[in-house]
Amino acid sequence: MYKFGLKRMIDFIVSIILLIISFPVQVITAGILIVANKSIHVFFTQVRPGKDGKFFKILKFKTMTDERGVDGKLLPDEKRLTPVGKLIRSLSLDELPQLINVLKGDMSLIGPRPLLVQYLSLYTPEQSRRHEVRPGITGWAQCHGRNAISWAEKFELDVWYVDHCSFLLDVKIIALTIWKVLSREGVAKDGKVTTDYFNGNN
Predict the structure, then answer these.
(1) For residue range 40-77, what is the model confidence (pLDDT) as tens digits?
(2) Using CA atoms, how far apart are residues 125 and 104, in angstroms rounded to an integer?
(3) pTM of the predicted model as reported, rounded to 2 decimal places
(4) Phi-psi bin for 67: left (phi > 0), alpha (psi -120 to 50), beta?
(5) How many other C-beta atoms lie within 10 A of the C-beta of residue 123?
(6) Phi, psi at residue 110, to the nearest 5°?
(7) What backbone phi and psi angles, to 5 degrees, belong to 92?
(8) How far is residue 147's CA from residue 194's CA, in Å, rounded to a whole number?
(9) I need a surface site. Which of 98, 102, 131, 147 has the fewest CB within 10 A?
């Protein structure tokens, strides 16, 4: 009942409320990024797999510049992530535009994080079960280390959430997420500005 009905209704109502409340913060964040990134392009979009593997375009604030080397290729992440971008990521402000994805029904407030399309062929059948529910802005794995835990641990936590999804669990995840954001735990692995790419289970 909750997983496939009431949850979507709550997502729709809460996303509208949060979009209204966060609008001033999003406007300020966009203005800061225009200055920091030296570009008017403040949004980052990318195709991601959602529920049942259906593709959608995720929307985030752009925390990296488009700086390229002499070969024309983008510079490494650590050279393109500005101090402002790093701060915005640590506070999870870059995720706020995803409330639009929630409103549209591409995502949920709570669920496994939507990952890259190229990972689809690398999952085991058990790991693929993470797509049985809508992906979320935050989730059970994000409450247990965000980007600081291994891929295997993330997927195990994602599938656990699929099997135990409930209203009370989602409330708990929201509370834990707020704590994680305030404490800025697990934003990235030690020595890295982002998480490693998933290269399969071998």
Answers:
(1) 899 999 999 999 999 999 999 999 888 888 887 888 88
(2) 28
(3) 0.88
(4) beta
(5) 18
(6) -125, 130
(7) 60, 20
(8) 7
(9) 147
